[in-house]
Amino acid sequence: MSHEHKDNVGAKLGMWLFLFTELLLFGGLFILYSVYLSRYPHEFTLAGKELNVVFGATNTVVLLTSSLFAAMAVTSIKRGEKKTTLSLLVATLACAATFMVIKYFEWTAKFHHGIYPGSPKLTAGPPGESVFFSLYYITTGLHGIHVLIGGALLAWIGSKVQSGRIHAGDNVTLENGTLYWHLVDLVWIFIFPLYYLIL
Amino acid sequence: MSHESAEHAEHIVSYKTLVSVWAALLVLTVITVAITRAELGALKVWAALAVASVKSALVIAVFMHMKYEARLFRIILLVALVTLAIFIGFTFFDVLYR
Amino acid sequence: MSSAESRQPIAAGFWGDTGKTGIGSWIFSTDHKRIGLLYLYSVTGFFLVGVILGLLIRLELMAPGKTIVDAPTYNALFTVHGVVMIFLFIIPGIPASFGNLVMPIQIGARDVAFPRLNLFSWWLYAIGAVVVLTSLFTGGGAPDTGWTFYVPFSARTGTNVSLAVFGVFILGFSSILTGVNFVTTIHRLRAEGMSWGRLPLFTWSLYATAWVQILATPIIAITLVLVIAERVLGAGLFDPGRGGDPIMFQHLFWIYSHPAVYIMILPAMGVISDIIPVFSRKPIFGYKMIAASSIGIAAAGSLVWGHHMYTSGMSDTAIMVFSFLTFIVAIPSAIKVFNWVSTLYKGSISLEAPMLFALSFVLLFSIGGLSGLILGAAATDIHVHDTHFVVGHFHYVMFGGTGFAFFAAAHYWLPKFFGRRYKEKPAIVGWALMFVGFNILYWTMQVLGMHGMPRRYYDYLPEFAPLNFVATVGSWILAVGLIVMLVNLVKGLKSGEPIGENPWGGATLEWQIATPPPTENFEEDPVVTRGPYDFKGVVKP
């Protein structure tokens, strides 16, 4: 039994199980997406065209890059390169911030055009369009909340690296934090084609 | 437990591997955009999903270290994915035939 | 605690471990036993709230027309009864209370894998409960949608649905974290020699349950978020006028809520699988099949949610598929029942309180399970859908099943943790009253349903009056039995006879340590060399 030293495998197992719940949480929204896409393919195509592919693609690159930094942070802490770890975490957070800023501009632009859940424009428009945008806002909104939570988590972990409580010999907390961050990336990998590119 | 010795050998992924995976992800992103611009009709959705699945497989395997974890981790990941697939798939028994 | 004169002293065990007293030593403790007891007190408290609401519903239905409350209050009564019983009692009921108390000891661990997360999940439970309770007295008043929160009504009613739904959302995360903790604990913290084939069946059932908690609960979480989005943002995802589909709400709701039935019943089955061999002095019959059937029920139970929706306008294909799949769940359930009965065969049976509750579980669960088949078959379901037959059916499974298993567990395990036991005679009197009252109440409901008495209706035709009266009388007998049982149990645990390490002659690890269990359960890490139901050399005092 290993109650004296930390059970790293157990900690990671617990984290993965939690990630599954996150996966299923978004899964509920993907169930709705798939059903409504099959019912309103035409409306989804038209509505999807209103989304800005440049914003979406940029954010995809930003998130993929942030994932790279996060993964590198794990490598660096295991090699005992504390300074590198800290800069990589800061870079990850910078990406997270960039993502949120782009998201903010994207959403405000949409709001300006009268596209938001329950807006008069959508209520008057074809039924599939309203469903598309409601799903879009709820899915990307929930994803945005996860970006914020992940960012806060990584910042907290960074402070622990700084103070030396996370180091080459004990870094499972950092690993788990980055696992969460990668999940945020994973979800976006599906959001991007399904909402921005579908046609 | 049986993996005791394997557990302690911690695997460190090199920067080089990570960067090449990142590069592959960027290439795949370009491919997704290209595919969805082409005239594929309904296949488009499946093609985009296929590329997205490859991308997530890369992220999970390398960035998330799944490749280096014990087999248990891969089994439970499969269980979770199959569950989600069933939840989506079985809903279509209703949606497709209504 | 008051000190009765005749009270004999017992060892302190984990009760004296912190050196501190007062509520702080409980609500900030990370000890799995203290958290288990916290859960036990909380869920029992909410169970009693639910019982009172249930009695009020029965009182209202005693005679046609208005009896004690007006119609909107009646709607709120059955809604809150359902929400409290399901989300605050049964779902956390056995896993979070007895699971926390017993499971780590059963596998030879000193605690769960993530003790602080365990405490956090109790806090989430407490916060969720407070939010749900707040929703009853604020905003537009207590929700009146039924515990199922079906759209479109839940999206439109003026009552305080948003807050109630948010509370349930928080409770869901409490349940998820318990599941994550239990799966990790069972994988990582088993003692040396505690192979999967030596895992007590209660622990096996908790393992299967935990997986359902992890994989199904997030779906209800997102569904409830969507209900709030309908109400607050006007998202229109379930509004047919805007292209949404209300039946999709039912899909999402039951994708969780049907597997949730197995979150409720699987741990109960585990309790029964642990109790029956001990009181039959025989190894369990078909250990592997019972363990595998827990996993089988968890897996098959995730495929059958559509059987709640035969009359909702789902496609005929889906009705046939889900009806067929529903019958598959009967197989692992029946495997368990047959194995319990086979364990009894030629056993040296002693009918003490835990065993009586366990045996009534087998009978009542079988009745509930068989009436479930009537509901699982699409043709018959359409006849009795939304009648009192359904209400009777799920109370047979949930109360006759899980409820009685909860009482069985209380009579079986709590003496171990309190170091004292209850009196046997009043326990049996309480059990007998409950058993009789229960059957009068819910059997009558099933008959009423067959005759066409709809569920959730405030008023009914005069022809249903006599049986409704009988059912209400049954509810009183049930309540009296419950009071007898609880008073005896509480009195016994506070100041009853002290007990030794192993009052029942159990072979699982929790009976091999001191009573009450010491702080970290084991003086030395145990090495397991025998199966959980190997009674060779285990003496019953």
What order do the helices and strands come in, and which of them pair?
The complex is a heterotrimer of chains A (199), B (98) and C (541).
Chain A: H1 8-39, H2 41-49, H3 53-78, H4 82-112, H5 120-124, H6 127-162, H7 172-197
Helix pairs in contact in A: 1-6, 1-7, 2-6, 3-4, 3-7, 4-6, 6-7
Chain B: H1 4-8, H2 15-37, H3 43-63, H4 71-95
Helix pairs in contact in B: 2-3
Chain C: H1 24-27, H2 32-60, H3 71-106, H4 115-137, H5 153-156, H6 161-188, H7 201-232, H8 246-280, H9 287-300, H10 316-344, H11 353-376, H12 378-384, H13 388-418, E1 420-421, H14 424-450, H15 465-495, E2 497-498
Antiparallel strand pairs in C: 1-2
Helix pairs in contact in C: 2-3, 2-4, 2-15, 3-6, 3-7, 3-8, 3-13, 4-6, 6-7, 7-8, 7-9, 8-9, 8-10, 8-11, 8-13, 9-10, 10-11, 11-13, 11-14, 13-14, 13-15, 14-15
Task: Give structural notes.
The complex is a heterotrimer of chains A (199), B (98) and C (541). By secondary structure, chain A is mainly alpha-helical. Chain A is 83% helix and 0% strand. Chain B has a domain at 4-69. Chain B contains four helices and no strands. Chain B has helices at 4-8, 15-37, 43-63, 71-95. In chain B, helix 2 packs antiparallel against helix 3 (43-63). Chain B is flat and about 50 Å long. Chain C is mostly helical and 541 residues long. Chain C has a single domain, classed as Cytochrome c oxidase-like, subunit I domain (Cytochrome C Oxidase, Chain A). Chain C has a two-stranded antiparallel sheet. The A-C interface holds A 1-3, 7, 9-10, 13-14, 17-18, 20-29, 31-32, 35-36, 39-40, 43, 117-118, 122-123, 126-131, 134-135, 137-138, 142 and C 108-111, 113-114, 117, 176, 179-181, 183-184, 187-189, 191-192, 214-219, 221-223, 225-226, 229, 233-237, 241-245, 248, 251-252, 255, 525.
